[in-house]
Amino acid sequence: MCHGELHLKSLQFPESGVLIFQEDLRLIANNQEKMPSASCDTLLDDIEDIVSQEDSKPQDRHFARKHVVPKVRRRNTQKYLQDENSPPSDSTIPGIQKIWIRTWGCSHNNSDGEYMAGQLAAYGYKITENASEADLWLLNSCTVKNPAEDHFRNSIKKAQEENKKIVLAGCVPQAQPRQDYLKGLSIIGVQQIDRVVEVVEETIKGHSVRLLGQKKDNGKRLGGARLDLPKIRKNPLIEIISINTGCLNACTYCKTKHARGNLASYPVDELVDRAKQSFQEGVCEIWLTSEDTGAYGRDIGTSLPALLWKLVEVIPEGAMLRLGMTNPPYILEHLEEMAKILNHPRVYAFLHIPVQSASDTVLMEMKREYCVADFKRVVDFLKDKVPGITIATDIICGFPGETDQDFQETVKLVEEYKFPSLFINQFYPRPGTPAAKMEQVPAQVKKQRTKDLSQVFHSYNPYDHKIGERQKVLVTEESFDSKFYVAHNRFYEQVLVPKNPTFMGKMVEVNVYESGKHFMKGQPVSDAKVYAPSISKPLAKGEISGLTEEFRNRLGNHLNSVSHTLGATQQDSASSRMALQLQRLHQDCTLRMSVVLALFAFLFAFLIKVCN
Fold first, then answer.
1. Which chain regions cross the lipid bilayer (predicted)?
2. Biggest CA pair distance of the chain
3. In percent, how much of the chain has pLDDT > 70?
4. Domain-by-domain residue ranges, the chain?
5. How far apart are CA 59 and CA 49, in angstroms?
6. What is residue 492's predicted lDDT score, i.e. its pLDDT?
7. Can you point out the beta strands (E) in 428-519?
């Protein structure tokens, strides 16, 4: 290779220009006298042999430099600023990810889900309804029946297939945290939902965390997490308040007991404060919920009627209260007081009392602690003292040992009372329960009994006699088909009304003109008054409720920590970019200096040749 070739190749590969040019200069300096006789395939007689006539001369290049206009590279300022302020897409900084929450089961579980969503949103996480775009799935489970757990298990599998971070909540992992399909996954216990942010943060960092302990005060079990935590209500007009957790029963089929445990009630004043706060945030309907509302207060020296009388004092005009499920044993001693409360104009005349079976033999095997006569006494008394009251009930078909005669007794009970709201459930043996070890009714028999009882239920229409009535209804939501607004009358019966935005969250008077199995349709009367609850404007959908001063302080500390971490990351990123730019600038200057020195070396060699 001749020196001319070496120079030309050096100019073709500027990435390695510094080293190659240094080598060029050493070769040139060592062979200044020998250059004309350098070994090449063709002897170079003149410098023009490597600089052709078509190539620009040094003076031409110097002249042309005066007319060079540098091309300005336009930067996408908006995109640049966004990149500067946003963390990398694979960042593990907590508090910036999107979270999808799915809840199965009862009102209590839904309330827990709302609390977890509120805390996460308050800490900066974005709660999304799009599962595919979420970084983490929070799955809040129900353990009552096999199908609910099957859906839960399938959701876990899907999340793993899509490489989502996963946090599990609810009764399934609380009751059986050692199941194989839960291994290696983070779990938040039913009484630890106030620590959901910690669990999510650690999960995002790649850790597996499990918090399954019980809330206690001086050794006494508490109702659960605090009621004044932030929450995002699924429906901004409806507040779900859990008045207690757990129960006093030991039903042989129930898995929920394994998760929620024994009865633990919230103090009356805390529940009243929560109701007040809800009304201040525009709520017009409160649902009281628990595993057994009738047992409320037995562990803290009070009772359900005592709580309800305190609550009705703070319910504003135009708002309503709905009482949740109560088992027969614990409502029997309060029947007189309960009748008075259910007659209150701001309390729905509605009560959910599960009977489960009309056979005393089956009830004994279930360990329900009452007989059919007790259930009938409760229903008959309330129907007499609270005219028009809606009694909802539950029935299990195919419990172990249930005979055809037992089942026929249940059918007769439904035919006698014609319950307008009836929840029919095929029996599913839940792992770890006494009923799972009993001799099972054949699956086909269970299915047939469920079908037969459903046919009895659909054989009557409970609302036909109400056509033509004028009713006052509270509008709270939109129907599933989006064609109507859903309202409820005094007896918590569903009434569909026209979609007039001025009705939402208010009471209106309607004429009932049509009825179905589960609903009535009402047309607002021409002289109808719209009763607006004397409460504040409702929160927007997705808005966080209950940001107390204490929580704001905790939130501020957390966000400062996240901001510091994020700022440090961005500062490090900016420093790295600046260092890279300086390195490139240094390399560029060195390359240019090498080119200049190489040209001088050419000229120097050319002059020596001419002089010789």
1. 591-611
2. 132
3. 75
4. 98-217, 220-461, 465-524
5. 18
6. 98
7. 470-478, 485-488, 494-497, 507-515
Are the CB atoms for 213 and 191 separated by under 8 Å? yes
Q: Which SS3 state, helix, strand or coil, does residue 267 take?
A: coil
Residue 540: burial class (beta carbons within 10 Å; 0-12, 13-18, 19+): exposed
Annotate 536-574 with DSSP letters as a single string: PPPPPTTPPB---HHHHHHHHHHHHHHHHHHHHHHHHHH
Structure tokens, 513:
């003109």
Reference 37, options 47, 45, 49; nearest CA is: 45
Nearest to 510 by CA among 467, 462, 464, 476: 467
Phi, psi of 300 (to 5 degrees): -125, 15
Find tokens 């839904």 and name the residue.
110
- Least Cα distance to 139 among 98, 188, 180, 176 occurs for 188
Which residues share a beta bridge with 509?
472
214 alpha carbon, distance to own chain's centre: 23
- Residue 475's nearest CA partner among 460, 462, 485, 464 is 485
**What is the identity of the amino acid at 485?**
Y
Sheet hosting strand 320-323, strand order edge to edge: 238-242, 285-289, 320-323
Using CA atoms, how far residue 483 sits from 398, 479, 500, 521, in Å, is: 38, 6, 11, 12
Residue that has been written with the tokens 């979270």 in this structure: 99
Cα–Cα distance for residue pair 378/433, rounded to 1 Å = 29
Query: What mean pLDDT is predicted for residues 123-149?
Result: 95
Q: Domain 220-461 - what CATH class?
A: alpha beta
For 317-346, what is the mean pLDDT? 95
Measure the CA–CA gap between 266 and 546, rounded to whole angstroms: 18
Q: ∠ CA 20-21-27 to the nearest 5 degrees? A: 90
Nearest CA among 481, 376, 475 for reference residue 419: 376
pTM: 0.76
Any idea which residue has 């009738």 for tokens?
A: 294
Q: For the CA atoms of 304, 489, 395, 408, what is the dihedral angle to 10 degrees?
A: 120
Please give the CATH architecture assigned to the domain spanning 98-217.
Answer: 3-Layer(aba) Sandwich (3.40)
Give yes or no for residue 324 having a pLDDT over 80.
yes
> Looking at per-residue confidence, does 400 or 249 come out higher?
400
Write out pLDDT tens, residues 12-24.
Answer: 434 433 333 444 4
Return d(Cα 170, Cα 416) in angstroms, integer.
37
- The residue whose two tokens read 């918090």 is 211
Structure tokens at 309: 């009388």
The correct answer on CATH 2.40.50.140 for the domain covering 465-524 is yes
**Under the phi-then-psi rule, with left for phi > 0, alpha for psi from -120 to 50, and beta for the rest, what region is 9?**
alpha
**What is the average pLDDT across 332-343?**
96
